[in-house]
Amino acid sequence: MTIPPRADWPKPAEETEGGALLTDVILATFRLNARLLEAAQDLAAHGGLTAAWWQVLGGVIDEPRSVADVGRIMGVSRQAVQRIADLLVDRGLAEYRPNPAHRRAKLLACTEPGYWAIRQISVAQHPWAADLSADLSLKDLQTTLTTMQSLIARLEHG
Fold first, then answer.
1. What residues contact residue 22 under an 8 Å CB cut-off, 6+ apart?
2. What are phi and psi of 109, to 5 degrees?
3. pTM
4. CA-CA distance, 156 to 150, in Å (whole number)?
5. Which residues pair with residue 65 across a beta bridge?
6. Angle at 43 between CA 30 and CA 38, to 5 degrees
7. What is the CB neighbour count within 10 angstroms for residue 59?
8. Of residues 92, 83, 98, the one with CA closest to residue 111
9. What string of pLDDT tens digits covers the 158 residues of the chain?
10. Which of 77, 96, 87 is nearest to 117 (CA)?
């Protein structure tokens, strides 16, 4: 890659107040994500899972879904979910079931050992979340969630 002299570099558009604040939110989100992933690893260990396994099982805890659907819900690729789903099935934490809506795309479903692992995690996660949120207002948390959901929708749907 050839890099031109700095004098020839393109000039960025003027940064708006909203753009600067959003950039700060994004950088804080990166840092928060790193801390949450660490916490998820610790919490998932209570059920003998990794954070990634917990995430995929969480996508089928309420009902069986295709691997592609789990990927869409979790915001990860179908291929990443497929690799983890196969591991979960091999370990008896999930199973594949026929999909009446699609002959080839089987449904991933949680098994009793999978539900047990999630229950073990919940026993640790619920008090952890209560403690972490104790000094935060419910209104602020709801505003944060709503804002994050709006940003996700804008990024995913243009």
1. none
2. -130, 145
3. 0.88
4. 10
5. 108
6. 25
7. 23
8. 92
9. 999 999 999 999 999 999 999 999 999 999 999 999 999 999 999 999 999 999 999 999 999 999 999 999 998 999 999 999 999 999 999 999 999 988 888 999 999 999 999 999 999 999 999 999 999 999 999 999 999 999 999 998 97
10. 87
Residue type present at position 71: G
Is residue 54 packed enough to be buried (19+ CB in 10 Å), middle (13-18) or exposed (0-12)? buried
Cα of first residue to Cα of last residue in the chain, in angstroms, is 31
Largest CA distance in the chain: 64
Q: How far apart are CA 62 and CA 40, in angstroms?
A: 20
Read off the DSSP letter of residue 49: -
Structure tokens at 148: 């994050």
